[in-house]
Amino acid sequence: MKLKCKMIINLFTAAAVPAAWLSMVYRGGGTLSSRGFWSLKYFTVLSNLFCGCSALLWLFLRKNRSHNELTGFLKFSSSMAVFITFLVVLFFLGPLFGFHAMYAASNLWFHLIIPLTAVTEFIFFPEYEPGKKEIMLSVIPLLLYGTAYMLNILINGIERNDWYGFGLWGIPSGILMFLILCLIHLLLALMLSRLSRLLRIS
User: Fold this and answer.
1) Could you tell me if 167 and 153 are in contact, meaning their C-beta atoms sit under 8 angstroms apart?
2) Per-domain residue ranges of the chain
3) Is residue 18's pLDDT more than 90?
4) Are 112 and 94 in contact (CB under 8 A)?
C-alpha cells in the first residue's frame, strides 16, 4: 500500500508541476506570476520545480538502493522548500495581496496543492529519516535564494526587484525576515521529521 501511494503521489507531482509551470510560462497567471522564463525569479516556481524534479528522480531511481539516500534527501529538502512557500502565502502574501490572487491559476498548484501533497507524502509515507546534518543542509535553497534576492535589491534598487514585498519596511527588515524564514524552516523540518516517525503508514 505504501509503495502504491508513493507511486501515485510522485507521478502526480512529476506531471502537475511542469504542467502548472508551462501554463504560467505561456499564459501568465495574475499576481506574482510572469510569462516566459522570468517566472524563474520566484522562489515559489523554483521550489516547485525542485519538488517536481525530485519526484521524477525518485520514480527513476526507486529500485536502486544505492541512490535512496540521495533521492530521500532531495525529496525532503524540496518538500520543506514548498512548505515554506505555502506558509509564506498563508501568513504574509495572502493577507498582503489577497488570497484570491494567491490561489488563482498556476498559483493554486504552486501555493497550495503541490506543497500539501509533498508534505503529506513526507509525513505519512517516508522512506528517509533526515538527521541533524540533513535538516541543516535542507535550508540551503532558501538561504541561497534569500541572499540573491536581497543582493539584487541592494545592487539594482528596490523598485521592480522586491516582488515579494520583503523590503517594504526597509532592506534590513527584509534581510531579517529571510533569516527568520530560515530559522522557521529548520524548526519545521525538525518538527515534521519527528511527526513523521509517529504518523507514518506502514
Assistant:
1) yes
2) 2-199
3) yes
4) no
